[in-house]
Design goal:
The protein contains ten helices and twelve strands. With about 300 residues, the protein is an alpha+beta fold. Strands 1, 2, 3, 4, 5, 6, 8 and 12 form an eight-stranded mixed β-sheet that branches. The structure holds cytidine-5'-monophosphate.
Length: about 300
């Protein structure tokens, strides 16, 4: 049996370029791994089977559409294993379809767990390449920490960070579809007369003030630099998120933003105590289903000695 712990992410900068001919958008995507995470346990089995526990388990598909199952099959195919056998149990804490890359995290964890269970010893660079085949956010879940993602988010450069930052994540009822949020971003750009193609929209770049704030470990400066080009699209599809963001700001957050494609909202707090107080205020605000205080950056997917109870 092998258990892997894997982090969720928040994008502290999500710069979105125009839509490319292949339908993806070029990004300047600063990923930040947080301690709120899933655990994936691999045990020997027949074929590839899945189970899931956690508050949102009912919303997790247990068929081959799950990135964890696709990861197991992709790794087996890469090594020419004709008849892969594994049962993957997902202990789910990351909000489902929430903009925190929870499905991608499970895909990354499954790659690592199956690699260990099957004794394959796949080089990390190869795991990263397989992860990129599974989805744009999967390589970062292997890498963790803080990293700049270029291309569609899969070309990663680790970034220097000092210290620990404290966050609160407000979980909404139901998820948002990532492709639908990107489409809404394109639609809003067209409506504003900007155009939406890669020829219309300048290539996004990492913000030097944001990189300096991360390197200095300065939460006030990071708060001032947080940006998400998908936020207007997520709020357009889910107008109630405006009230969630406002509730967090009024309760003392240094900054509030939609996490990735949403609908989870992320709030930066000045320290751990402020995060605990802020999460309590958000839970009683009536603007979200629940709120979790957490921190980061933390490492990417890692084998642990035993699953959490
Ligand atoms: O790569 P992944 O399968 O996670 O992407 C899901 C969807 O999100 C894509 O099909 C695309 O619609 C959108 N996307 C995008 N540009 C990116 C990443 C994702 O348009 N850089």
């Amino acid at each position: 049996m092998v258990t892997v712990r894997v982090p969720a992410k928040v994008n502290v900068q999500l710069g979105v370029g125009g839509v490319r001919p292949d339908g993806y958008h070029d990004l300047a995507n600063v990923f930040f791994a947080v301690a709120l995470g899933d655990q994936v346990t691999a045990t020997p089995g027949e074929g590839v089977t899945l189970s899931c526990t956690g508050p949102d388990a009912a919303a997790v598909p247990l068929d081959d559409s799950n990135l964890a199952a696709r990861a197991a099959r992709l790794l087996a195919a890469h090594h020419g294993l004709a008849d892969p056998g594994v049962h993957l149990h997902i202990d789910k804490a990351i909000p489902v379809a929430g903009g925190m890359a929870g499905g991608s995290a499970d895909g990354a964890a499954a790659l690592l767990a199956c690699d260990a269970l099957w004794g394959l010893d796949t080089p990390f660079e190869t795991l990263l390449a397989l992860a990129a085949e599974l989805g744009s956010d999967v390589p970062f879940a292997l890498l963790g920490g803080v990293a700049l993602g270029r291309g569609r988010g899969e070309l990663l450069e680790p970034l220097p960070v000092t210290g620990i930052f404290h966050w609160v994540f407000a979980v909404a009822d139901g998820g948002l579809s990532t492709p639908a949020v990107y489409r809404e971003c394109d639609r809003l750009r067209e409506e504003a007369g900007l155009g939406s193609s890669a020829a219309d929209i300048p290539d996004p770049d990492a913000d030097p003030a944001l990189l300096a704030a991360l390197a200095a470990g300065d939460p006030v400066a990071l708060a001032a630099a947080l940006t998400n080009d998908l936020q207007a699209a997520a709020v357009s599809l889910r107008p109630s998120l405006a009230a969630t963001l406002r509730a967090g700001t009024e309760a003392g957050a240094l900054a509030a933003l939609v996490s990735g494609s949403g609908p989870t909202c992320a709030f930066l707090a000045k320290d751990a105590d402020a995060a605990t107080t802020l999460a309590a205020a958000l839970r009683t605000s009536g603007t979200c289903r629940t709120a979790h205080p957490t921190h980061g950056p933390v490492p990417g997917a890692q084998v642990v000695s035993a699953p959490r109870p």
